[in-house]
Design goal:
With about 725 residues, the chain is of the alpha+beta class. Helices cover about 45% and strands about 20% of the residues. It starts with a helix and ends in a 19-residue tail after the last strand.
Length: about 725
């Protein structure tokens, strides 16, 4: 390679001059000047390679830039200057940007070092924290990490509206500049319970309104969380007055961010490689940490002694799109089956879902260190930079190194798809457990209303029994135990109540029988038959483990006999048996994933269920046995509906189709195609000739059941159509 090829690569689209062995221009191409006065990439390739070779990687991988990384942070000079000038005039900044846009890195490695240069490193107090579950505790930990003693920092632990002002008034020297940096401000809405969130926001607003020129408050928040500010008018005003949107790096800035760290280590790029990296980067979601990871991996893989980073190695690692996935696959492939299971359990605890989007969450590192195998796998994942471990508030936390891993690694995509129900339920569990714990300290009776019951509790207990959630937090486990205890008490009370009612009915029937035995012939045979039928129905329900329903039927039968002054041995024996028998739960098990829709046939004998496992199952209601499974959809079945005669079943799916099934044979009759997105609802007209469907594409369609042809499309909704239903006469659709 000639030196000239290096000039051409670096200077591709910048305003530079190439000639006589010199390259000048990157610095000149950045409007507003540069922070780093000495830009190595202004030199020629020969001069750069003549420097002392530093073999250690100058790229951070998936780690965020911090204050000490300022000499490796390039490409944001104009933003550093702009924000520094901005904070000379104002005391508050809300920095918006997409995930991976480099908001935190800009503040940590760019803005803070610049302010230190301007104000004096000894005079600037850097108080950086993320809100987490309790932002007051996070701020307290931040104070401890600086110059303050525990007895001083304790001021921050008070969950009050005047806490932040009191901390400033109590601890700040008049000559110091306090730089309060609240990173990942969106955590207030994803991790902090509402009680603490509301108080912290009021406390923060009070501090902002105090308008102390020697207290600079900077917050970073993902732009997709702006709607979360709506319930807080004070935050809306802060956004209107103090926000800036961080824009993407342009090509010249990216070139500097890519080339300058290597140049400072005495290494240059092969001609065409930087162009290729930038092109690949723009095809991604603009994730700067992913770019840093790719460059770090390229550095580790290439032969740095030759002082070139070359295209061949870049292609071997799969470029920007493949680097992260390949590295993760390599690590995962080295695990045995037990280690893979441990890794999946760790990742499962570190993933949350916001709608349908997977995001990373932090967890206590200690929760993965109790079992030897899991601890070993945890350390390997951290050492290989798939996970990041940090110390916060005196405890270690761990999280996925970058959210891009959740999007590009097939292993995690499969895990999220398979365990979606567990992830959603666990997130709800943690939030409700925290709310319950907070209320316990104030009102135990009110706190009990937060405990779980019914299907939610049954499902989480089932997951625990199957060891599907091995790393639950201690508070969540305590919450589950309390919920189980309450559910048992409520169940026993219901059974006692039902027994009392049944016993009263039994006595009443016997008394009325004694008083009115002579009136037997005057009773209406239809009423006696009804009571007799209800007696048998009660036994049947009890045999199907539907205890409360059985009690209700038995009581109705007893009341009928009482009203008619009649006696029936079957009913009397049934009432007596119900008083002496115990109960158990009734459930239908068979689907591999969450059930999303159910529908009874008109005669009540058959139940259809649609699931995220892409199948439909038909069940015999009386026996609880599966009749058959209907397979054909390529994605989640969102809706199922029987025709009035019970012979045909319609199903709507995320695969954008509707299918008709023969209930008797289980065969697919036909498929309707026409929607542009997921089908959320299907409904037959009373005569069974027309089918209506509602979709994610905001439309409703009518179909001819016999021919499968689309009749018409209704447009007008502004969002997803979750439900459709015909009127009794079939002339109106809602």
């Amino acid at each position: 390679m000639t030196d000239k090829s290096y000039y051409s690569e670096i200077g591709g689209d910048v305003k530079g001059l190439i000639g006589d062995g010199e390259f000048k221009g990157i610095a000149g191409d950045i409007s507003g000047g540069v922070i780093n006065q000495y830009i190595i990439t202004q030199k020629s390739g020969v001069e750069i390679q003549a420097q002392t070779l530093i073999t250690g990687s100058p790229y951070l991988g998936l780690r965020k830039f911090e204050v000490d990384d300022k000499d490796r942070f390039f490409g944001r000079d104009n933003w550093i200057i702009e924000l520094t000038d901005y904070l000379k005039q104002k005391n508050v900044l809300l920095l918006l940007g997409a995930s991976g846009s480099g908001k935190s890195s800009l503040v940590q490695a760019g803005l803070i070092p610049k302010l230190k240069d301007n104000f004096g490193a000894n005079k600037l107090v850097n108080l950086t924290f993320v809100p987490d579950v309790n932002p007051f505790e996070s701020f307290y930990g931040c104070l401890l990490a600086n110059r303050y003693k525990q007895y001083q920092a304790k001021l921050a632990q008070a969950v009050k509206e005047d806490t932040l002002i009191k901390v400033v008034e109590g601890l700040k020297n008049n000559s110091d500049l306090w730089f309060i940096f609240i990173d990942q401000f969106e955590e207030l809405f994803t991790r902090t319970p509402k009680t603490e969130r509301d108080i912290f926001i009021k406390s923060l607003v009070n501090l902002i309104e105090n308008n102390n020129s020697l207290v600079k408050i900077v917050m970073t928040i993902r732009a997709d969380f702006l709607d979360k500010l709506s319930p807080y008018p004070s935050l809306g005003k802060i956004h209107d007055q103090y926000s800036k949107m961080l824009t993407d790096m342009d090509e010249s800035q990216l070139r500097l961010a890519i080339a300058e760290p290597a140049a400072r280590n005495g290494v240059i790029f092969e001609k065409g490689l930087i162009n290729q990296i930038i092109a690949d980067f723009y095809e991604q979601a603009g994730s700067l940490p992913l770019l840093q990871y790719t460059l770090d991996l390229l550095w580790q893989k290439d032969h740095i002694q030759e002082r070139f980073l070359n295209i061949k190695i870049y292609q071997e690692i799969g470029g920007v799109t493949g680097a992260l996935e390949k590295q993760a696959d390599k690590i995962y492939s080295q695990f045995n089956e037990q280690q893979r299971k441990a890794a999946e359990e760790i990742f499962l605890e570190l993933i949350s879902l916001e709608g349908e989007k997977a995001v990373s969450r932090r967890a206590d590192k200690s929760s993965f260190e109790q079992e030897e195998m899991q601890r070993e796998v945890l350390y390997q994942l951290i050492d290989n930079r798939l996970l990041v471990s940090k110390g916060e508030d005196g405890k270690a936390t761990v999280e996925v190194a970058h959210e891009e891993l959740l999007r590009c690694w097939q292993v995690l995509q499969d895990l999220i798809r398979e365990k979606e129900e567990i992830i959603v339920l666990r997130s709800r569990l943690y939030a409700d457990a925290k709310q319950w714990d907070d209320l316990q300290k104030q009102d135990a009776v009110k706190a009990s209303s937060e405990l779980w019951g019914g299907s939610k509790l049954a499902k989480i207990v089932e997951f625990q029994k199957n060891n599907s959630l091995p790393n639950l937090e201690a508070l969540a486990i305590e919450f589950i135990k309390a919920s189980i205890s309450q559910a048992e008490r409520q169940k026993n009370e219901k059974i006692r109540t039902a027994r009392r009612i049944t016993a009263v009915s039994l006595v009443a029937v016997m008394v009325s029988t004694g008083l009115g035995l002579m009136a037997w012939k005057q009773t209406q045979q239809a009423e006696l038959n009804l009571a007799h039928s209800r007696g048998f129905s009660s036994v049947s329900l009890f045999n199907e483990h539907k205890e409360l329903e059985a009690f209700v039927e038995a009581i109705k039968a007893g009341k009928t006999l009482q009203n008619q002054h009649a006696y029936d041995r079957v009913v009397m024996n049934t009432l007596q048996k119900l008083l002496n028998r115990k109960s158990e739960h009734n459930r239908l098990l068979g689907h591999n994933m969450r059930v999303t829709s159910v529908s009874f046939s008109r005669d009540g004998r058959t139940l259809a269920s649609g699931s995220r496992d892409n199948t439909i199952k038909l069940w015999n209601i009386r026996t609880g046995k599966e009749i058959r499974t209907l397979q054909g959809h390529n994605s989640r079945v969102s809706s199922v509906s029987f025709s009035r005669d019970g012979k045909t079943l319609a199903s709507g799916s995320d695969d954008k189709t509707i299918k008709l099934w023969n209930v008797e044979t289980g065969q697919e009759i036909r498929t309707f195609k026409g929607h542009n997105s997921r089908v959320f609802s299907v409904s037959f007209s009373r005569d069974g000739k027309t089918l209506a469907s509602g979709s994610d594409d905001k439309t409703i369609k009518l179909w001819n059941v016999e021919t499968g042809q689309e009749i018409r499309t209704f447009k007008g909704h502004n969002s997803i159509v979750y439900s459709v239903s015909f009127s009794r006469d079939g002339k109106t659709l809602a």
